[in-house]
Amino acid sequence: MTKRVLDLWSEVDVIAGYKTYIDLIRPWVAGKKLVSTGMRQEIDRCREVVEIALEGQRIALVSSGDAGVYGMAGILIECLEEKDALDTPLEIIPGISAANAAASLLGAPLMHDYAVLSLSDLLTPWEVIQKRVKLAAEGDFVMAIYNPKSKGRQDQIEWVRKAVLEYRSPATPVGIVREALRGESQVVITTLEEFTQSPIDMLTTVIIGNSNTRVVGPYMVTPRGYVL
Amino acid sequence: MTKRVLDLWSEVDVIAGYKTYIDLIRPWVAGKKLVSTGMRQEIDRCREVVEIALEGQRIALVSSGDAGVYGMAGILIECLEEKDALDTPLEIIPGISAANAAASLLGAPLMHDYAVLSLSDLLTPWEVIQKRVKLAAEGDFVMAIYNPKSKGRQDQIEWVRKAVLEYRSPATPVGIVREALRGESQVVITTLEEFTQSPIDMLTTVIIGNSNTRVVGPYMVTPRGYVL
């Protein structure tokens, strides 16, 4: 949570968000009017936020990580557009995205060019995701993978493993972080050859190293290229 | 600055960093011992930090944005390795990287898969950078470009413009943000065709939209794919 967010709570009348996130911030928002909704109700949530704002109330919409990365910022702007209300005052406050949080727990895997990808095919054709994985692998980008698995989607990450192995060594370091910086984080550093044998679920971020990424003691590090 | 960083200042004895960053945090660190160094002295700065830590003092090394993205986290771990001191207690605190800060000022351009690239060829061969730009463009990744120009390096961004035009429409939105969330931010939303006519320097982050990115009122938005 940034200083801007800590200051924000006193400036708004209402706080809205997915139930789990509202629960996380409860200690900071005692006495505020709270509007919480369930998962996969993003559009309804945004429409409700816009309605409340158009009534003249100051409302904060809470997103996890960075609202601007697979978060609520885009859909909220589209809901303002739908209501012809794009002149409504809006501040988007950036946060620590899961890739950056996971990286901080692994060491420094994102020190060089990287690609951020989601494997969720709910809103993106799987063929588009496959193409991006292949090109990122070919470009030797470090890869930060969001939504690697869900209950109904178990096999994509294994496809990714095989696709990246076409371009990188089986020994390439891979970091797996569950619930990064949210309570009890679980951190594993393993290899491209073996990483899909570790537990991975929808709360996990997977970071695949590039051809220079090394394991340095307890850390996963992608060197920037300085010569010591 | 995150809550963790605000809490940190009281936990350390010494604070080190590039002079400009030390100046930015001066209001929070009154009375602390400060060690500031100039630009391009990253290795010396890290070695000094390691020495102070090995003397038993608690020291914070300040980086701008996210220390884990083109920042000091990796080189610090390599300096610990050099001194055979990898068991030294180390906490890497993630921050808001320039891409995420710039995105928040532009609207929501990073709502879908994106690639983070630096055009600095000080430590990376220009041919590697060129290859990555082409592959990211082909993969329809939103592109967040760090270090687009420096005093001695003016022409690469024009090469990038032409390379991306091979894959994307001239009307593709491009956002240019200078000094994102650091004092007086300057924000421009323009097009792939024209963006190199806007002022760009080493304090600028450039975000090139993908094939779905739209200008929505005053915002640049890459839709996630929700149907309203």
Automatic annotation (TrEMBL), chains A, B:
Enzyme class: transferase
Organism of this sequence: Desulfitobacterium dichloroeliminans (strain LMG P-21439 / DCA1)
Gene Ontology annotations of biological process type: cobalamin biosynthetic process; methylation
Pathway named in the protein's UniProt entry: Cofactor biosynthesis; adenosylcobalamin biosynthesis
Record lineage: Bacteria, Bacillati, Bacillota, Clostridia, Eubacteriales
Protein name: Precorrin-3 methyltransferase
InterPro entries linked to this entry: 4pyrrol_Mease, 4pyrrol_Methylase_sf, 4pyrrole_Mease_sub1, 4pyrrole_Mease_sub2, Cbl_synth_CobJ/CibH_dom, Precorrin_MeTrfase
GO molecular function: precorrin-3B C17-methyltransferase activity
Keyword Nucleus among UniProt keywords: no
Signal recorded as keyword: no
EC nos: 2.1.1.131
Tetrapyrrole methylase domain residues: 1-195
Any Pfam family the entry gives: TP_methylase
Alphabetical keyword list: Cobalamin biosynthesis, Methyltransferase, S-adenosyl-L-methionine, Transferase
